[in-house]
Amino acid sequence: MPSLDLYRKVGIYGGGLFFAITGMAQPFFTLYAQEVGASTSAIGFMVTLRSLLPIFIAMPAGQMIDSIGPMKMLKWGSLLLILSLFTTYYGNGLWMLSLSQFFMGASIVIMASALQVLVSDGEKNKRNENINKYSMWMSGGGMLGPLVGGGVVSLFASELMGYKTSFLISGIASIGFLIFILVISRNYPHPDPNQAEIKPRDIIRVKGIVDSYTSGWHLTKIRAVQFGLIGTFLIMYIQALYMSFMPLYMKELGYSTFVISIVLAIRGLAGMLSRYALNWIMKRTHLERILTIAGMIASVCVLLTPLAGLHIVGIIVLVLIMGSAVGVNLPVSIMIVVNDTKDSDRGKLMGLRLLTNRFSQILSPAMFGILGQTLGLSFAFFTGGIFLVSMMFGFSLYTSKNWNLKTDARDKVQAAKR
């Protein structure tokens, strides 16, 4: 039987592949929707739908992971990913495109939760190292996906046909990913559903869904979990805003799809490279300070976007800084929330974290889409930046004064032995 370390590697490298596949499609979804006639506000609400279904399934998905294991849940997530990508490919109306975002949102919450549970197993130092590697590969996938997708789109005279081809290729790649999961999961030590605290068939019932939220709610009483959830909410708000509307803004400024894809890839590269510096940073300060400073930097980047948009060099510098700041959010927020929780609650915890992310990804595109439609994208970035800087400053000031959390990323006992 393969060791559990093999499946931790599946979580790490599988995360890179998964986000490369979604990266080929998701950054171009807004541009594709615009091509078929959607307004800025309609696009904002369609992107919002991507996060709507996960609100209702995030906690049940986490509980299912605890009951039947992450590898089985990866199969279901892969099926939903395939369904989403081919719905996007065949869809040429707002209803079909909206439906594709429902499927995509469900896939992401299931896949991300299962992958994070795989990599967050083990003792503290090894666990944090794997989380950092997973985050780095996730950013690597986020860098490669837009590059490949943008390259595909640039091969076609018709951008509409280029977008559809990129969706098709990513759909075919997702089928290959599902086949890989089916093969590699054969020897995984799946939990016995009959021994689970809550049986899988009970989780998917209405009462089970309600119970999954109430049973996981006790985790929010833990101060470190509260900090990690609020911090990641604010930073994911920024990421959802940027990933959804930066391509539209650059298109409005006259940049080609290929240039846009390169800029998005640079952002992914910055996120990946920031993980190399993260170990050095974690040795010098606590995780809560890292998260708040990263959030403040990302907020300032949103505020400066209209100014940076005056020249391509300014955009590249800005996305490098933004990508680095947002890049540390995922590993640091996971390290904070898992530090004071039990292994048996890991699935529920990841579901709770992703539920928080989905709330931010609902509010961000909807609010920003309305602002962009009525006032223009430049003014929307400016006002959104002021709001986010204020929120991050208030969050940092309040928590440092009243909570005084200082989570060390390393196990002090093991660190002392080195």
What does this structure look like?
The protein has 418 residues and is mainly alpha-helical. The chain has one domain: Up-down Bundle (Growth Hormone, Chain: A), CATH 1.20.1250.20. The protein has 16 helices and no strands. α2 packs antiparallel against α3, α10 packs across α12 and α11 runs antiparallel to α13. The longest helix has 32 residues. The radius of gyration is 20 Å and the shape is globular. The relative contact order is 0.16. The C terminus is likely disordered.
Keywords:
single chain; 418 residues; mainly alpha; Growth Hormone, Chain: A; 16 helices; globular; disordered C terminus; MFS transporter; transmembrane helix; MFS_trans_sf; membrane
Helix-strand layout with pairing:
Layout: H1 4-35, H2 40-68, H3 70-90, H4 94-119, H5 124-154, H6 159-184, H7 200-203, H8 206-216, H9 223-252, H10 257-282, H11 287-308, H12 312-327, H13 329-338, H14 346-375, H15 377-402, H16 412-417
Helix pairs in contact: 1-4, 1-5, 1-6, 1-9, 2-3, 2-4, 2-8, 2-14, 3-4, 3-6, 4-14, 5-6, 5-10, 5-13, 9-10, 9-11, 9-13, 9-14, 9-15, 10-12, 11-12, 11-13, 11-15, 14-15
Protein name: MFS transporter
Membrane topology: Multi-pass membrane protein
Domain Major facilitator superfamily (MFS) profile: 1-402
Instruction: Report the radius of gyration as a whole number of Å.
Output: 20 Å
Q: Please name the CATH topology.
A: Growth Hormone, Chain: A
Order of helices and strands: HHHHHHHHHHHHHHHH
Helical stretch tally: 16
Low-confidence spans: pLDDT under 50, at least 5 residues? Answer: 412-418
